[in-house]
Specification:
By secondary structure, the chain is α+β, with helices and mostly antiparallel strands. It has 2 domains: 193 residues, Metallo-beta-lactamase, Chain A; 61 residues, no CATH class. The chain contains 7 helices and 16 strands. Pfam families: Lactamase_B, WHD_BLACT.
Length: 272
């Protein structure tokens, strides 16, 4: 279902679509794949960077500064998680560029230069507020069918949805929103370019609905704790992956609770 790629070059801009450079941060991991994708985009207003990446990768940072070139214009953020946002304060200090984030941006310690709302256009990109993975998550759509999807849709794996900031009901609603669009290419926050993304996003949503059905099937035979439900449904042995699976299970249960399809009493979940 998912798509892999060889270990990508580091600290170097690689063109992945017309007027778009991808630079992959050197922060590989079980939740980040080869690393965070930062994208430098030629726009009518100058060059913008989407998601400068983690604070710790100085070579990545310098590659961004170099590739922004002589006409840099701004910094766009898909969401506040540190593997995307970490380098933003230093990049603004170094370049003086304005930083634009979602109106739902939760970090009170950082004051952005502009807040973006759903449907707004900035530098020729249409803002899509796509909460689910994070409450402030944004995608950015270019008129030619290129969509920057951040962590809402990744090509290498499904996204973790971890309450309380993550919300499975919102996430599934926003997956359906992307299905209803006609994007030609998705550029994710981690992993390779995703071409013809519609069928892939349909599979992502179908997989979430399958997990939901498995949770309900488990509860139809026994009331249980979150931990036992996650172990039964996801069957993950790696402790890091098991933890992520448990957070996804929690998000599914919160969604089902909001729909009055399950109830919870002192940590035990059951059908009504």
């Amino acid at each position: 279902m998912f798509y892999g790629e060889p270990d990508p070059p580091r600290a170097r801009g690689v063109e992945v679509a017309e007027g778009i450079l991808r630079i992959v941060a050197n922060n590989p991991g079980k939740m980040t794949y080869h690393g965070t994708n930062s994208y430098i985009i030629d726009t009518p207003d100058g060059r913008f960077i989407i998601d400068p990446g983690p604070a710790e990768d100085s070579a990545h940072f310098e590659a961004i500064v170099e590739n922004l070139g002589a006409n840099p214009a701004g910094i766009l953020l898909t969401h506040h998680h540190s593997d995307h946002f970490g380098a933003v304060p230093a990049l603004r200090e170094r370049t003086g560029l304005p930083v634009y984030v979602s109106r739902a941006f939760p970090d009170d310690a950082f004051q952005p230069d502009g807040f973006l709302k759903d449907g707004q256009v900035i530098a020729g990109l249409t803002v899509l507020h796509t909460p689910g993975h994070a409450s402030d998550h944004l995608c950015f759509a270019r008129p030619d069918g290129v969509l920057f999807t951040g962590d809402h849709v990744m090509s290498w794996n499904s996204s973790i949805v971890s309450p309380p900031d993550g919300n499975m009901r919102d996430y599934c609603t926003q997956l359906q929103r992307l299905i209803d669009r006609n994007d030609k290419v998705s550029l994710p926050g981690h992993g390779p370019v995703l071409r013809d993304p519609g069928p892939y996003v349909k599979r992502l949503l179908a997989n979430r609905m399958r997990r939901e059905s498995e949770i309900l099937a488990h509860l139809s035979s026994t009331s249980d704790s979150l931990q036992n439900i996650a172990t039964s449904v996801y069957k993950k042995s790696d402790p890091h992956i098991a933890m992520a699976a448990e957070r996804n299970a929690a998000a599914h249960l919160e969604k089902l609770l909001s729909e009055s399809r399950v109830v919870q009493d002192e940590g035990i979940w059951r059908l009504p």
